[in-house]
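A note from the maintainers: we've had questions about how concatenated examples are separated. There is no special marker in the raw files; a new sequence line simply starts the next protein. For clarity in this README we add a label.
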Amino acid sequence: MVVQRRQLHADPRLHTLGALIAVLALGTPAAAQISVEVTPLRLELKATPGGTTTQSIAVSNTGKEAVRVRATVSDWHLSRDGSPQFVEATDPKYSASPWTRVAPPEIVVEAGKESVVRFSLTVPAGTSAAGYRTSILFEFSPINASPLPKPREVAFRSRIATLIYANVGEPATTVELTDLRTRELPDRPTQIIAILKNGGPRTVRTRGTLTLYDRTNAVIGQTTVPDVPLLPESEREVAIPAFNPDKPKPPPGEYRVEIKIDVGLPALIVGETTLKVS
C-alpha cells in the first residue's frame, strides 16, 4: 500500500471531544427503573436504486416493569466532535428518512421479554451513488405514565437510536487530514486530535495506528485509531489516545508522533507532530 506523508504541527488549543454514541439518556426517578436494550445500535446497508430492504431491530426489556416503546424515523448528523445530533434535516441531500417506514410504531414490551420492530427502506430509482443515513429512534416510558405532565412537572423520557447507513453504489472517496492537535486536560489521558475532512459523497470509517518515537527514533509506544464514521461532505475531530493505557507513561521529554489512518483510499493518510511530556 502506498504511504503519503504530510507534516502537521501541534496546536496548543484545547478542544472538548465526545465519542460517537447511540444512547441518549434522560432520566427521572421513575424513568430510572426502565432497563431496555436495543440491538443492533448500528446498521450498514448495501442498497440499490429502486430496491427495498427490510431489517429487524430487537427491543429487550431487562427491567421489572412493562415498558411502552415508541419508534420513529429520525434524521441525524454528527457534530464536529462526533456526537450524534437528532434533528430535522436542514440539508436533505443525504437523508434516507423519506425512504424509511417503521412498523409497528408503538409496542408494549413486558418485563423480561423481547419484541421486534421492523423497518423497510426503499431507495428511489435514479438515486445517485452516495452514503445516505437515517435512524430509528426508540422512546421509552412506563405504561402507566401520563401522556401529559402535571403542572410544574417536566416530562423526561429515555431514548436509544439505531443509526442506519444506506450506502448506494460505489462513490469515490476523498478524505484529507487537515491538522493535528494535542489535547491535555487535568486528570485525563492525553489525546492527539486529528482533523479529518471528507470532501466526497461517501461515508467512511477510520482505522489505523498512532506511534510514539523518542529522539533516537526508537518506538516508545503505539495506540489504535478509533473506528468512527466520517459523514459525506463533513469535517470532524477524531480523538486518539497518545499513550497506551496498559503501559507506563513515557518519561518526560519531547516525542515524535506519527499517525496512519486507513479510510479505504489507495494510500494511507499519514501525519506527524510533536508531543512534550512533562
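[label: protein 2]
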Amino acid sequence: MSLTKRISSLLAAVLIAGVPLTTTLVLPSMVHAEEAVTVTSQPSVTEPASAAPAPAAVITDKETVTNPYGLDALWKQGDFVAKGTLVMLLIMSFGSWYILAIKLYEQYKLRQQARHMQETFWAAGSIEKGIDGLAKDGPFRYIAETAVNAVGQYQKANPGTIDLNSWVIMAIQRASDSVQSRMQDGLSFLATVGSTAPFIGLFGTVWGIYHALTAIGIAGQASIDKVAGPVGEALIMTAIGLAVAVPAVLGYNWLVRRNKVALDQVRAFGADLHAVLLSNARNPAKV
C-alpha cells in the first residue's frame, strides 16, 4: 500500500470515530503548558520554607559564644611568670585591706580609751586610782605607769646630775615614742604596696606585650586573633596593679592623719601628767 493510501485510511478512521482533529492537536499543548506552570510555580512555594530556619541558626551561634580574653582565660593561658605576677598582686591587695581594717579598729579603740580617760582619770581621788580605771592594754595606762615608776626610781636613786623634771620628761617621751611606733605598725607595708604595685602591674604589661610580639612573629602577620589575647592580658595586669596601689596609698594617708590626731591626745595626756607629778613629787599618790 502506498503512502497516500495509508494517510487517507488514517484520516477516514479518525473521522469515523468522531474525534475532532483540533482536539488531538490542542490537548498536548495544554498538557505541556500546565506542566510548565507547575514547574515554574514550585520555587515560589519552596523558597519561604527553606529561608525560615536561617534566623534560628544565627541565634544558636550567639548563645554559644564565650569570651576567650577574660580573667579565667588569663589564668588558664598565662605562663608561670604571668601567674606569679597575678598572685603577688593579689597577696599585696589582701594584705593592704587587712592592715587597713586592723588599724582602723585599733584607732577606734584608742579613741574610746581617750574618751574614757577624760571622764574617769582626772576625776579619781589619786593617780593610782586613776591608773586602775584605765584599760590595761591601752597607751594611756602605759604612759601613766611609766611616769609614776620614773618618779619612784628618781626618789630611790636620787641622782645629782639630773633634776626630776628632766627625768620625768625623758620617761614620758620614751613611752610616747613607743606608743607611736606601735601605732605605725603596718603602715610601711601600705607605703610599699602603694609605691611598687604599679610597677609590678607594668611588668605584667610588658610581659603580655612580649607575648603579643612573639605571636605576631610566629604567625607572620599582625592579625587581631594573634594579638588580642596577649594585649588583653597586658591591659588586665595594668588595671590590677592600679587597683592594688590606689587603695594602699589612700589608706596610708588616711591612717597617718588619724594617727597624728591620736598621738596628739596621748602627748597631751603625758604633758598634763608630767605637771601633776612634779607638783606632787613628795607624794605622787595624791592628785
